[in-house]
Design brief:
By secondary structure, the chain is α/β, with parallel strands linked by helices. The chain has 11 helices and 13 strands. It is flat.
Length: 321
């Protein structure tokens, strides 16, 4: 029987996710439904369903969007060719890319202009990786996920050409350190960006869950299977010595998970809504478990809304006068 549930913070929505969801809500309020979103605005099943119920339509292909419609580009970032496609279709575009992802886009553009060879540490096929690498269409940018990938990596470098390391913002922090070390061992002239690419929220949540895992028998992470940062939390919890499960909602909890478990830890990925966390807390407390809190770093990051949305709101306001 579960006797205690420890809820860790920080958890759940980061500043980039909060901003992205607000962008969709504000755009719906401004223009009405439907509003199109290129790719899921964030990687969470619950959030997407909630937004679709309000009138958002998720598409993967820009050509599916009727000409002249309003479209929001997701928080994960997009390659330049998608912006060109939107322009050709005369779409009213709002770019909700997380500013921390945009920073990596600027870094790879600057690296290419400087004649450097980028290596990207991230997950093959992830939309964030595709957006960043899309900024460097004229050169081959390898994606590495493991030390083994680095061992197999061959680069056709020019004389004394510098290598710059860029990373997916939601990658496993400890694994990145090991991969960077391996890259530096294998290649010369390796430089890193002045600012590390890993998102502050990713770092904070991974540190917190590593601490949590040492105090519990089982860690539950609220988040979707398609969420990179949520999967990394499960990964870190297991590496820190606890069993861990990923779930979208309380309904997914299985009795088998709780056999022999006295203390459960609870966290949430950066795109997971807090009300889903609260439902799980209530589930255990209704069964007699006591609640405890584990507090890590306090977060107060906020991002301003996209400039395109500001301009559209001002234009609509002028027309209404």
């Amino acid at each position: 029987m579960v006797e205690k549930i420890i809820i860790v913070s920080p958890r759940g929505f980061c500043a980039g996710v909060t901003r992205s969801i607000k962008v969709v809500d504000d755009t719906l309020a401004l223009f009405g439904a439907p509003v199109y979103i290129k790719h899921a605005i964030v990687h969470n099943k619950t959030v997407i369903k909630d937004l679709e119920n309000k009138g958002a339509i998720i598409v993967e292909d820009i050509n599916e969007i009727p000409e002249g419609s309003v479209v929001i580009f997701s928080a994960h970032g997009s390659p330049p060719k998608h912006f060109e496609q939107a322009k050709k279709r005369n779409l009213k575009l709002i770019d909700a890319t997380c500013p921390l992802v945009t920073k990596v886009h600027f870094e790879i553009i600057k690296a290419v202009q400087a004649g450097q060879q980028p290596i990207y540490i991230g997950h093959q096929g992830h939309v964030e990786a595709e957006g960043v690498i899309g900024e460097a269409e004229n050169i081959k940018v390898p994606i590495v996920e493991t030390i083994e990938d680095v061992e197999k990596l061959e680069l056709n470098l020019k004389n004394n050409q510098k290598i710059i390391i860029l990373t997916q913002t939601t990658f496993n922090v400890d694994k990145i350190k090991k991969i960077i070390k391996k890259i530096k061992t294998k290649f010369k002239n390796v430089i890193e960006p002045a600012d590390k690419d890993i998102c502050y929220a990713t770092t904070n949540r991974q540190k917190a869950i590593a601490k949590l895992a040492k105090e519990v028998d089982l860690v539950l992470v609220v988040g979707s299977k398609i969420s990179s940062n949520s999967n990394r939390l499960v990964e870190v919890a297991k590496e820190s010595g606890s069993e861990a499960k990923l779930l979208d909602s309380v309904e997914e909890i299985k009795d088998d998970w709780l056999k022999g478990v006295k203390t459960v830890g609870l966290s949430a990925g950066a795109s997971a809504p807090e009300y889903k966390v609260q439902e799980i807390i209530k589930y255990f407390m209704d069964k007699g478990a006591k609640q405890k809190k584990l507090v890590g770093v306090e977060e107060n990051m906020k991002f301003s809304e996209p400039v395109e949305l500001k301009k559209m709101r001002a234009k609509v306001s002028t027309l209404d006068e």
